[in-house]
Structures are given as C-alpha cells and as structure tokens.
Design a protein that fits this description.
five-stranded mixed beta sheet, 2 domains, alpha/beta, receptor, six-stranded mixed beta sheet, 11 strands, D-Maltodextrin-Binding Protein, domain 2, Tripartite-type tricarboxylate transporter, receptor component TctC
Length: about 350
C-alpha cells in the first residue's frame, strides 16, 4: 500500500560507475566494492556532519528546544540501504534541530539488539531507532517480544518501493514470464538466494504461493552476499533494492524482471510489475520508520516528528532520496504506526505459517 508522495522535485539521478567481472573472485570483489562504496559515501557524509558544529540553519520552530546530541540507532551493520538512509536522515535532522545528530550501528538479532538498546536508553528523546519491515520478523517468529507497539512511533519519512526480482544476464531469462515458465517446468530446481529468517525469505514464499513459481530458497546471506552469488551464478535469482545493485543494472550484468510492489514507481518506470503479466502483485516494498522509548513525553515525540516533517519538505533531502529511487512520504506518530502495522498484516502475516515451518 502506497500513498501519494509529498512532491516529485527531481527525476531519478542515476548512480554512476562501471564495473567489470573477471571470474568468480573478481565478481566477489566487485560486489564487495559496491557495498563498500555505499558505506564509505554515507559514513563520510555523517562523519562530517557529526564531527562539526550543527549547521547554521535555524532550528525547527517546534516549541521545544533541543539541547543534547541525538543518537539514531541503526540496527544493522554499516553499508546497506537502511544504514545509508539513516545517515542521510541524521544529516538533515541536524540541520533543523540545532544539535549534533549521530548514527550508531548496533547489529545483531535480526535488528533486535538495536531496538532493545533504544528501549533501554533514557526516555528523553535523545535516543531514537530506525527500522522497517524486518522489525516485525523476530516478533512473528516468536524469538522476540519487541514489535512496533513497544515504542512511540515518531514518523515514517520515506517509502522504499524499489525491491526488484533480479537475475544474471547469462540466465537466459529476460522477463518474469521466462523465469516462471522455466521454474514451473522444473519445480524446486531454480534457486532463489536470500537470508534465512529475514523478510526476503517470506518474499520467496509469497512468490511461490501467488505465482506458482516453484523457486527453491537457499541461504546465501545479506545484500552484498546475494549480489556476489548472483554475479558468480551461484544462485539463480534474488530480490534486492534497486539502488544497491544499480551499477549491475546499468552495465547489464543484472536484469530486473519485476518490481515487488503494489504500485508503479515513477522513478523506475521501465521496471515492469507482476500485474503487467496478469499476475497478482507481490508487495515487498518497505517503509523507513523512526521510533523511541514508550516513556518519552509526547511533547518531545511531537517536536521530533515536526523536525522530520521539515526534513521531508527540504528539496535537497527529497533529491537525495530520489537519487536512490525512494519516495518521500511523511507520516507522523499514530498515522505512521497504523501504516506500518497494515503493511505487516497484508505483506507478512499471510505467509507466517509456511515461514515458521521452514525455519
């Protein structure tokens, strides 16, 4: 489920870079370099912002004066799309808050460790956590009692409708129809690579159920590992956020067969949807959510939400997000919480039983 975005200020800015792959070791190096490049870019931007005085832009007029450094906990390691988005958000929050905003990566437990650290922090609005669809997975598994109701939701600033189903150019499959025809002819032989226990595993279950896809899930790891495996033809198909693999789509190493969302992404107009083939859309778009301790006073939560509103109205922030094909779509507090819960109920819960049986 998508909402009309606040504004489309710029067309997508294609990320540049020409990659080459020479044998499996070279391909692995290329995939690692892509993620390293993203990590270096986002860390450099945040280090510059956090290591200096807050920018001179006037702080947000929220009726609340921010006086202490704010920490945004990113509950995954540096280098992926969640980390990148967190660092960009921190930079622009700092611009409007008048205090330093830093990013702290707390990886572990399928985002549980980072969420727990936020819950354990002083409830004064100086420790926030960011997350997305994956925040629901440990709760659904029963491995954690933490869910969105454990926090006060501050806002959802961004929707990520960029998850695509991708294959290697050497696969011989140029369309979703090609892949499905091959997989239905030989069920359980075409390998769909992902990370076990994550939402991309649930996506595989959904595709098999909704499209009779016949894909065989194999655990290859995180985004960098998935791209390496696809480049080396060690797996047949993956899902990936488009911007993370943009270089490979640009050079033709990867082919995006389908956008895994409910609505067309205007910034990825050339990527078809399942409905273009007469199939049900399998929606694994993501939201980018910001929350804090449930004991944080509403006055502070509302002030933080208003800061993020101003960030979302900043043309430079919008342009930065659109350069990654993301949609700036501001929602605050209860509206944001309801939106996230509805995405969980429609996108993950229908496949819960089969997901649990495959753990």
């Amino acid at each position: 489920m998508m909402r009309k975005k606040i504004s489309v200020l710029l067309a997508a800015l294609a990320m540049t870079g020409v990659l080459s792959a020479c044998g499996s070791s070279g391909q692995a190096t290329t995939a690692a370099a892509t993620e390293a490049k993203t990590e270096a870019k986002t860390e450099a931007a945040t280090t510059e912002a956090a290591g200096s005085e807050a920018e001179s832009a006037a702080p947000a007029d929220t009726g609340y004066k921010f006086e202490e450094t704010v920490t945004l906990i990113c509950p995954v390691k540096a280098g992926g799309d969640t980390d990148r988005n967190t660092r960009v958000l921190a930079e622009y929050m700092q611009k409007y808050m008048g205090v330093n905003v830093i990013v702290k990566n707390v990886d572990g437990g399928a985002t549980v460790m980072g969420m727990q650290e936020c819950l354990d922090a002083k409830p004064d609005g100086t420790t926030l956590v960011v997350n997305g669809t994956d925040m629901f997975v440990p709760y659904m598994q029963g491995s954690s009692t933490i869910n969105i109701d454990s926090f006060k939701t501050i806002a959802i600033p961004v929707i990520d409708n960029t998850t695509v189903l991708a294959v290697n150019k050497n696969s011989g499959w140029n369309t979703l129809e090609d892949l499905l025809k091959a997989s239905q002819a030989a069920p359980d032989t075409i390998e769909y690579g992902g990370k076990i226990g994550a939402s991309n595993q649930i996506c595989g279950i959904a595709m098999n159920k909704e499209w009779n896809a016949g894909l065989k899930f194999i655990d290859v790891g995180n985004n960098a590992a998935k791209m390496t495996a696809l480049l080396g033809e060690q797996t047949d198909v993956i899902n990936i956020s488009y911007a993370l693999a943009n270089d490979y789509f640009t050079t033709g190493e990867f082919i995006p067969l389908c956008l895994l969302g409910n609505e067309k992404n205007e910034l990825l107009a050339n990527v078809p949807m399942a409905s273009d083939y007469g199939l049900a859309n399998v929606d694994f778009s993501k939201f980018f959510w910001v929350g804090t301790s449930p004991e944080t006073p509403d006055e502070i939560v509302n002030a933080l939400a208003d800061v993020i509103r101003q960030v979302c109205e900043d043309p430079e922030f919008v342009a930065s997000m659109e350069s990654y094909y993301l949609t700036v779509d501001y929602m605050a507090t209860e509206e944001a919480k309801d939106f996230a819960n509805k995405m969980y109920e429609s996108g993950l819960l229908p496949y819960k039983d089969e997901f649990l049986s495959n753990q």
